[in-house]
């Protein structure tokens, strides 16, 4: 969602804050702002609607010099994108605050503060925090005491950074429901909602826990207080992915770079987890084997692309482990009465590990009786999901910046196949079957590279889509969720309405939509449903539909059939969902480029959805 960056440094912080905002822009991008305490002890602020560059342009003519500051890039929740609604919010020019998340009791607080004479300049929920701080600091005498009192009265989710005109070189922060990390510098200290923002100045981080409050002061002093108010020591961790991920390299967009990173990151997801002929169950943690032996049922819960990965896994898990699987979107799961048969494992997936609905679902699940435990599959070390799930498996995709998930999805699928094989192993899956899939997993990165070689023909294919308003994606079996993922990608970044159907369902309604104006895209691996799929494609063709098919090289579909066909190398049918995702990603990417949309930061979206 929104992004926070803050600094207490030995140097002018404007440049650090601005670079931090650029790196956080993927989280939210409708407005940005910065407040810095200058040498005269005044809080000075600049805000601008639009991308971070608009703020940079303002700062170029009207800079904000100072050694401590807070900054924010916004994704609107309360109040439209506008300068008055942009953060930081201030109270009487003495206090400034940046906030991610939602304050649920803001209306009551706003009324109370208005009655006490505070004048509101914005429509945001955040502004109440600035005024509450102003009110409490008068009584408390220092910023930290006032801040703790204010935070105790807030309902909802937040990551916060605040500063005060009368607190030189101090920034105070807190996290509850939204991520916040402390960057440890040399005699300097920083705060951010994502370590990526701070890799320009440090690779050492403290991941704050729920309820933590932190004070950064001059000389790099970092004091952390837990939810009970006690002083705590949190470990300093070194960020291991390097800083390369924060740049596009030679690629035009992060999304394209991340698509092309897939062979390497899938190999990284497999590294150290494959034995000669089976998956190493220990890679899921020391308790994994005994836990997996007790599994009788699995519930998979996630959002968006991660949900699609879970849908694919259902086909794998039921096919290879005989364990019944239920898959559900987190925003639905968290609000219904869930029947949990004994021996159920809760599995959750999240690229960010901070998605509000997914985290709420995990917490809700852990309060139910009968769950054996939880497995979190995640891409961000130290994230809430990793900390709170009983077992975790990192997907090793490295930071993903493009809002449309690509490498995060295929590494989630890879991790889910590892999970299938680990569970299969403890439940007696035939050894030959395990060995075959392990061998196929080893071939996967090079097959992915081969498919990425189809970039040019897919780019040529994309010209047929740029003027269209609708598209239909078809798949069968485990490729139905791949079709859904293809449709989501096209919607997200090209703004073309796209739907996905299991191909066998066409005749029950959506066939009525088929005409020459709606391209129909299908994936056709060489699996046991191929003949069924071919019949479904004939149904489309017979009604004047225009078909684009990504097909196995051996399936006997060719251009002569009056359809556009691109052939993919043969792959074991179980792993085909991973490989067939790649051409759909490339197709969406090229359509979006032709349409001239903002590929990496599509309108109305944010990378990490930390509000409900
Ligand atoms: C996918 O392209 C989207 N960015 C979105 O659907 C995303 O997968 C969803 O918001 C869940 O995010 P998570 O994996 O970080 O939990």
From TrEMBL:
Gene Ontology MF terms in the entry: carbohydrate derivative binding; glutamine-fructose-6-phosphate transaminase (isomerizing) activity
PROSITE patterns named among the record's database cross-references: GATASE_TYPE_2, SIS
Organism of provenance: Halomonas cupida
Subunit structure: Homodimer.
Compartments where located: Cytoplasm
InterPro entries: GATase_2_dom (IPR017932), GFAT (IPR005855), GFAT_N (IPR047084), GlmS/AgaS_SIS (IPR035466), GlmS/FrlB_SIS (IPR035490), Ntn_hydrolases_N (IPR029055), SIS_dom (IPR001347), SIS_dom_sf (IPR046348)
Name of this chain's protein: Glutamine--fructose-6-phosphate aminotransferase [isomerizing]
Annotated stretches, region: Disordered: 66-92
């Amino acid at each position: 969602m929104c992004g926070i960056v803050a600094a207490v440094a030995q140097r002018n912080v404007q440049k650090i804050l601005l670079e931090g905002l650029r790196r956080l822009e993927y989280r939210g991008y409708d407005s940005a702002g910065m407040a810095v305490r200058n040498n005269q002890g005044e809080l000075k602020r600049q805000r601008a609607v639009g991308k971070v560059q608009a703020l940079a342009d303002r700062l170029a003519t009207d800079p904000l010099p100072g050694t401590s500051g807070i900054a924010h890039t916004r994704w609107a929740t309360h109040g439209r994108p506008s300068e008055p609604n942009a953060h930081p919010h201030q109270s009487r020019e003495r206090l400034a605050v940046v906030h991610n998340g939602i304050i649920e009791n803001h209306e009551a607080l706003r009324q109370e503060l208005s009655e006490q004479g505070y004048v509101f300049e914005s429509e945001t929920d955040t502004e109440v925090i600035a005024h509450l701080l102003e009110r409490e600091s008068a009584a408390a005498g220092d910023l930290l005491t006032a801040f703790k009192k204010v935070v105790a009265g807030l309902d909802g989710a937040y990551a916060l950074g605040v500063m005060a005109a009368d607190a030189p070189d101090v920034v105070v922060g807190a996290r509850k429901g939204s991520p916040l990390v402390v960057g440890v510098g040399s005699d300097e200290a920083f705060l951010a909602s994502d370590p990526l923002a701070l890799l320009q100045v440090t690779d050492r981080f403290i991941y704050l826990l729920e309820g933590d409050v932190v004070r950064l002061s001059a000389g790099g002093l970092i004091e952390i207080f837990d939810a009970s108010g006690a002083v705590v020591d949190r470990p300093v961790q070194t960020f291991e992915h390097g800083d390369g991920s924060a740049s596009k390299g030679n690629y035009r967009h992060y999304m394209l770079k991340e698509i092309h990173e897939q062979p390497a990151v899938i190999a990284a997801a497999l590294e150290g987890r494959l034995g000669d002929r089976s998956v190493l169950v220990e890679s899921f943690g020391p308790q994994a084997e005994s836990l997996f032996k007790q599994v009788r049922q699995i519930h998979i819960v996630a959002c968006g692309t991660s949900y699609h990965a879970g849908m694919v896994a259902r086909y794998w898990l039921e096919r290879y482990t005989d364990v019944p699987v239920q898959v559900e979107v987190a925003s639905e799961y968290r609000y219904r009465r869930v029947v949990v048969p004994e021996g159920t494992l809760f599995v959750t997936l999240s690229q960010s590990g901070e998605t509000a609905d997914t985290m709420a679902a995990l917490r809700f699940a852990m309060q139910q009786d009968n769950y054996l435990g939880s497995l979190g599959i995640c891409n961000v070390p130290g994230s809430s999901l990793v900390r709170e799930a009983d077992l975790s498996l990192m997907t090793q995709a490295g930071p993903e910046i493009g809002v449309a998930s690509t490498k995060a999805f295929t590494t989630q699928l890879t991790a889910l196949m590892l999970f299938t094989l680990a569970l299969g192993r403890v439940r007696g899956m035939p050894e030959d079957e395990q060995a075959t899939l392990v061998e196929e997993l080893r071939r996967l990165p090079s097959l992915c590279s081969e498919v990425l070689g189809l970039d040019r023909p897919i780019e040529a294919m994309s010209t047929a889509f740029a003027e269209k308003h609708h598209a239909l994606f078809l798949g069968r079996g485990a490729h139905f969720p791949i079709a859904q993922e293809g449709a989501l990608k096209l919607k997200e970044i090209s703004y073309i309405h796209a739907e996905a159907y299991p191909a066998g369902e066409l005749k029950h309604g959506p066939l009525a939509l088929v005409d020459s104006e709606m391209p129909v895209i299908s994936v056709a691996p060489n699996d046991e449903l191929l003949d069924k799929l071919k019949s479904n494609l004939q149904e489309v063709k017979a009604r004047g539909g225009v078909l684009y098919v990504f097909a196995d090289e051996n399936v006997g579909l060719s251009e002569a059939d009056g359809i556009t066909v691109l052939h993919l190398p043969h792959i074991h049918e179980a792993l085909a969902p991973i490989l067939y995702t790649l051409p759909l990603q490339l197709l969406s990417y090229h359509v979006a480029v032709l349409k001239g949309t903002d590929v990496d930061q599509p309108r109305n979206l944010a990378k990490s959805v930390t509000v409900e």
